[in-house]
Amino acid sequence: MSLKLGLTGSIGMGKSTTAQMFAKEGIPVWDADAAVHRLYAVGGPAVRPMAEAFPDAIVDGAISRDRLKSIISADPTALARIEAIVHPLVAQDRSDFLDRHDADIILFDIPLLYETGADRWLDAVVVVTAPPEVQKARVLERPGMTEEQFDLIVARQMPDAEKRRRADYVIETLTLDAARDDVRKLIEQLRGAKPDA
């Protein structure tokens, strides 16, 4: 039985980099964002049901995220209908991933982990964190990002302090070396805690 470990963190906290560190240590990583991209791509499982519900969202045989944003802005009921299509498909993708990987630990990289209630089916959660000024500097280095956009994104996410309070484990990502050490120590700790290890 695999230990299902969740990984989350606010924007700019180093979640994707930390997920790669787990992968380099041989831990299978399921990435929620990548799953949605697969579902939305040409031939993806979400394309046909979405085309029936929102024909304007389809561009060149794939689901356009920009079109979806416009649809959601124009219609307050659209988001719930989109989620009703996409969430079961994401859950199926995740279940298929679990079936394909016979590992003692499997990592689930989920941006809105607490916001979507994913902590209910996970065995433990790791939150990545960094000081607010480091977070802001990292995000503002991204192409096209403005302070206003950054503030909007942060306002929509659960506060970092609340995520840390709810986490089973916290990894600070101030430096790559320290974060990598923490990832390795956590894997050792989790393997040591498993009765069948």
SSE blueprint:
Blueprint: E1 3-8, H1 15-24, E2 29-31, H2 32-40, H3 47-53, E3 58-59, E4 62-63, H4 65-74, H5 78-100, E5 105-109, E6 124-129, H6 132-140, H7 147-156, H8 160-166, E7 169-172, H9 176-193
Describe the overall structure:
The protein is α/β, with parallel strands linked by helices and 197 residues long. The chain has 2 domains: 1-28 and 107-197, P-loop containing nucleotide triphosphate hydrolases (Rossmann fold), CATH 3.40.50.300; 31-100, P-loop containing nucleotide triphosphate hydrolases (Rossmann fold). The chain has 9 helices and 7 strands; from the N terminus they run βαβααββααββαααβα. A 5-stranded parallel β-sheet has the order 2-5-1-6-7, sandwiched between helices. A two-stranded antiparallel sheet has the order 3-4.
Looking at the overall shape, the CATH architecture of the largest domain is 3-Layer(aba) Sandwich
CATH fourth-tier homologous superfamily of the largest domain: P-loop containing nucleotide triphosphate hydrolases
How far the N terminus sits from the C terminus, by CA atoms, comes to 11 Å
The total of helices stands at: 9
